[in-house]
Specification:
This protein is mostly helical. It has helices spanning 3-20, 25-45, 49-67.
Amino acid sequence: MNYIDILGYSASIFIVASFLIKNNEKLLRTINLIGCVLFVVYGILDNAIPVVIPNAFLIVVQVYYIFFAKRK
């Protein structure tokens, strides 16, 4: 296992962990954001553009909701 594989597995762990969080939307989005960033780096290093594109988009979405969306 090389460092690119470890990066991919780490990203997966963060994404799965974000689905386990309840009642704390900011934490959920932050954990998911970390996973998306790791997946973008993984995709670039592994030349996996289909992994990069949706995760780059999700980074923008998560940043918007963490910093700019109005809270209830």
